[in-house]
Amino acid sequence: MEKIILTDCDGVLLNWEYAFCIWMEQHGHTQISNGNREYDISKRFSINKDTGKNLVKQFNESAAMGFLPALRDARYYVKRLHEEHGYVFHCITSMSLDPNAKKLRQMNLDKMFGPTAFPVLDCLDTGADKHEALDKYSDTGYYWIEDKMDNAIAGLEVGLNPILIEHGWNMNDSVPVGIKKVTTWKQLYKHIEGIDDRST
Questions:
Q1: pLDDT above 90 covers what percent of the chain?
Q2: Is CATH 3.40.830.10 what the domain over 4-15+69-192 is classified as, yes or no?
Q3: Fewest beta carbons less than 10 Å away: which of 12, 111, 124, 132?
Q4: 73-112 per-position pLDDT tens digit
Q5: How far apart are CA 142 and CA 22, in angstroms?
Q6: Torsion angle of the four alpha carbons 151, 154, 156, 162, in this order, in degrees rounded to the nearest 10
């Protein structure tokens, strides 16, 4: 089997949440108390749904897309999986269909993880469903790394091996059989490499 790992981007590889919240504050929006437990931006910032969607789209098509920081320890372990173990990553992200936003995202990934780690970047419309994008990988058993439970389940349904990255908004979700939840890329790396370390 080819050494391919499928990944989401925001909340998995890059810390979109951190950058977006700073951007929202700069645009006059304040996050509610314990807002990190809300996935829905309209709830997190106490704004209506359409406004929330428009602001996410605006942010995702801004220059910020070229400069998001890596999430937690993703940079170190993605590079290890690629450089030491020969994996390549196919990124499926519901960011935007804007071609310039895609170029900025590719630039950001190349800068963070190296120019050869992400040969495939599939950019879907802002907030788009991922079922169709995952269908082309059906029954491959590839790892599929996500932070949104619905998308992890979509991967499970087409024969992938989903791993959910834990965040405030998904930490209390019940985890179906066949999906593994981790908090760090170190845990993810050890799972993929079959390293048994109960301390992580």
A1: 91
A2: no
A3: 132
A4: 999 999 999 999 999 999 999 999 999 999 999 999 999 9
A5: 34
A6: -20
pLDDT of 197 reads: 57
Where, residue-wise, is CATH 3.40.50.1000 in the chain? 4-15+69-192
Q: What distance in Å separates the CA atoms of residue 46 and residue 181, rounded to the nearest whole number?
A: 29
Question: CB under 8 Å to 190, separation ≥6 — which residues?
Answer: 196, 197, 200
Sequence-distant (6+) residues with CB within 8 A of 41 are 20, 47, 52, 53, 55, 56
Residue 198: which pLDDT band, with cuts at 50, 70 and 90?
A: low
Q: Which residue has the tokens 């890596």?
A: 70
Say which amino acid occupies 152.
A
One-letter amino acid identity for 94?
Answer: S
What are the pLDDT digits (tens) for 101-134? Answer: 999 999 999 999 999 999 999 999 999 999 999 9
- Which residue matches tokens 């998995």? 12
* 180 closest CA partner among 145, 134, 140, 131: 145
DSSP assignment of 14-41 equals B-HHHHHHHHHHHTT--PPTTGGG--SH
Q: How far apart are CA 61 and CA 97, in angstroms?
A: 9
